Amino acid sequence: MAKRFPDSSADKPAERSANVGIADVARLAGVSPATVSRVLNGVPNVREEYRERVMAAVAEVDYRPNRLAQNLRRQKAEVIGVVVSDIENPHFSEAVRAIEDASFRAGYRVMLCNTDETAEKQRAYLQMLADERVLGAIVSPADREGAGIGELLDLGIPIVCFDRTIDDPRVDAVTGDNVEGVRRATEHLLWLGHERIAYLGGRRDVETGAERLEGYLRTMRDAGHVPFAMDGGFRADTASEVTVKLLRQPKRASALLVANNLMTLGALRAVRAAGLRVPEDIALVGVDDPPWASLVDPPLTTVAQPVREMAQTAMSLLLERIRGTRTEVRRVVMPLELRVRDSCGMSLKSDEGTAE
């Protein structure tokens, strides 16, 4: 029979005190402090009877473990860092949600940082994560050099790069096959009869920007067409300004391929401000498939990344490192999917085919 604190009574639950500790919980549950510790840390080899008694005692006194003290003893926090380049981008917010879900199920918590595509902020946040003694981090790098990442690796803190890689050969990574995905989108526009296909890309010093541009340029040149690429900086406002200039060209492009969803919004804004229609006046294809892509009029043709699968894979790779079950470097590349809807002019081609 479990013992009670001397001042507790059957009809009045024990009030939580700041001084209530693991020894008090053990006394109330009738077990050793070591057993309480094993239960609270999720150790599996504890008898169910003891587990139930410990949890009942924890609930009765509202005991809360001092995580800070535990972390200081372990020299590690039960926290995983997540560093993204732009939290406003639905691509990254969806990834963060998937990482947080997987982290919570594994018993860890997430510390989220946004670099705003700057190496300086990335370095500062990674230093903070090191100071917080995080177990590991998933990072979408703001630069190919990976500002600050090497320092964490030197400290033994595992890093998994998400969406982009860096030059450091020690780091794991999960990315999409950007070259192939954009190649397929460009080929589809060519198949629809477009020859003047413009490309609105992102930063060329970032892997995703460089690879998507490569897919477009290679496909246009292989088909014998002159490419026309512009830089929208992965930003909606910049993309809108660049698209305005594109639409004012004497010989306007008949199709526009846009390298991420934020820039697609900027491009759509510019097209509609010019009084033009998609796809009748200009066809549009975007990389990324946010929830609104199928809801706009016309529905948007996209090159979709398996965001949740990529994020879950990144989390699995990080957990392997944290738990010490893998030491070799892994870099996973996942295919992108072309999702054809009306904005590319597919329905217009179908109508022409029916008329013939």
Give your account of this protein's structure.
It comes from Capillimicrobium parvum. This is HTH-type transcriptional repressor PurR. Residues 20-74 form the HTH lacI-type domain. The chain has 356 residues and is an alpha/beta fold. It folds into three domains: 1-65, Orthogonal Bundle (434 Repressor (Amino-terminal Domain)), CATH 1.10.260; 73-176 and 307-335, 3-Layer(aba) Sandwich (Rossmann fold); 178-304 and 338-355, 3-Layer(aba) Sandwich (Rossmann fold), CATH 3.40.50. It contains 13 helices and twelve strands. It has helices spanning 22-29, 33-40, 48-61, 67-74, 90-105, 119-131, 149-154, 178-191, 207-222, 236-247, 261-273, 307-323, 346-355, and strands at residues 79-84, 109-114, 136-139, 159-162, 172-176, 197-201, 228-231, 255-258, 283-287, 301-304, 331-334, 337-339. Helix 1 (22-29) crosses helix 2 (33-40) and helix 2 (33-40) packs across helix 3 (48-61). The longest helix has 17 residues, at 307-323. 41% of the residues are buried.
